[in-house]
Write a structure and sequence with these properties.
Layout (H helix, E strand, L loop, with lengths): L3 E4 L3 H12 L4 E4 L13 E2 L4 H7 L9 E10 L2 E14 L2 H14 L3 E3 L12 E3 L10 E9 L7 E5 L3 E7 L4 E9 L9 H10 L3 H8 L2 E10 L5 E2 L7 E2 L5 E2 L7 H21 L4 H31 L1 H12 L5 H7 L2
Parallel strand pairs: 1-2, 1-7, 2-6, 4-9, 7-14
Antiparallel strand pairs: 3-5, 4-5, 8-11, 8-12, 9-10, 10-11, 13-15
Bound molecules: flavin-adenine dinucleotide (FAD).
Flavin-adenine dinucleotide binds next to α1, β3, β11 and α6.
């Protein structure tokens, strides 16, 4: 059997490695960083089927994630809606999840090389799971963990005039605070002060006070710029999974699910190539087509919805409808899943 080489040990790369190693396909993951590590991520997983997790062999790693069924929406500190999710979202830190997945890969005999950066160029047997390519953009993602935060039960989503921020309870009484903002160079500061500056200028002064009253874990602070949303640029003949192929706007809480789904869709074609029953070109084309078909609708809808959610007129409409319980929430949710 031929070895599948996976560039990038984030959720897509590690879950794919688990799914392959579970089927005794030799895998090697090449990861630029180390484990565990904090990552810019809202840390709530929504819209994933248990069958996908089982296919990948990672259901146990998510079993003790916090389950959230309620979400509260705010606009600049005003609560505008409480929603009930049809299926619970899972709250778990990337610190814990990525660490667990890499242990799982190694436990199944897969190889992981950390602190090694590989070329993103396509090659036979190589899967690109290296996340979003660096691209100049006007987005900034910031996150940190806090303890002892006063909050509603469940999840909170806050819309502001420069982006949005989600609050997700994760393990060990921590709450993950993660926002996507339009880059504003005037919002300066080191570590969480930068996040506070974006929040204060985004109209979330009440939230800033609540955060200042809590215990902020500065070591968990992370930031990322140079991120683009939607379909990502890559070579036509590349075999890509996760964010390397497409990035869904974070408010959906579906990016991690897409990383897992794209890994699950890739197992069959990669196993066929490894066993010698399918050529690399055919396996790549087959997997890329399945993914395009699976993700097309949700990428298109979520980009349009995010644009509306970030626009003051769109926010006015959303607030008006929310206050009257007129947001077709379940329909919208099904369009971004
Ligand atoms: C602000 C923000 C909030 C978000 N919130 C949520 C949320 O609440 N819920 C949700 O489901 N999703 C959320 N997401 C999206 C989610 O984080 C991603 O969809 C998910 O991490 C994608 O996983 P991945 O494995 O494809 O990429 P990544 O997790 O980015 O992993 C890529 C890996 O590749 C490694 N790498 C990169 N280049 C190389 C190289 N050349 N060689 C070797 N290794 C390399 C990196 O070190 C990294 O470990 C959010 C994203 C942002 C930006």
């Amino acid at each position: 059997m031929k070895t599948v080489r996976i560039i990038g040990g984030g959720l897509a790369g590690l879950s794919l490695a688990t799914g392959l190693a579970k089927r005794r396909i030799p895998v090697e993951v090449i990861e630029a960083g180390t484990y565990p590590r904090h990552r810019v991520c809202g840390e709530f997983i929504s819209g994933i089927d248990i069958s996908t997790l089982e296919k990948l062999g990672i259901a146990a790693e998510l079993q003790d994630a916090k389950l959230h069924t309620t979400g509260h929406w705010y606009r600049e500190d005003r609560k505008i809606m409480t929603m009930e999710l049809p299926d619970p979202a899972r709250g778990i830190s990337r610190w814990r999840l990525d660490e667990r997945l890499q242990e799982r890969v190694q436990g199944l005999g897969g190889k992981i090389r950390t602190e090694t950066r590989a070329e993103r160029t396509p090659a036979e047997g190589t899967v690109l799971a290296a996340g979003r390519p660096m691209e100049k953009s006007h987005w900034l993602g910031l996150k940190c963990h806090v303890k002892g935060l006063r909050m509603d039960s469940g999840l909170e989503m806050h819309l502001g005039n420069n982006g949005y921020v989600g609050l997700t309870p994760v393990e060990d009484d921590r709450v993950n605070v993660c926002g996507l903002f339009q880059l504003q160079p005037e919002n300066r500061g080191k570590g969480s002060d930068r996040l506070m500056a974006y929040l204060a200028n985004g109209g979330h002064r009440g939230l800033v006070e609540r955060l200042r009253d809590s215990e902020i874990d500065e070591t968990s602070f992370s930031g990322v710029s140079a991120l683009s949303l939607g379909w990502q640029k890559h070579e036509d003949d590349a075999f890509v999974v996760g964010d390397a192929g497409s990035v869904i706007p974070p408010f959906t809480g579906n990016g991690m699910s897409m990383a897992f789904e794209s890994a699950a869709h890739s197992i069959g074609p990669l196993a066929a190539w490894s066993l010698g029953s399918e050529s690399w070109d055919s396996a790549t084309r087959r997997a890329m087509l399945i993914k395009r078909q699976a993700f097309r609708k949700r990428i298109r809808t979520s980009l349009a919805l995010q644009q509306a959610l970030l626009d003051p007129r769109g926010q006015n409409v959303f607030e008006f409808l929310s206050r009257r319980n007129m947001v077709p929430f379940n329909t919208l949710l099904s369009l971004v899943r």
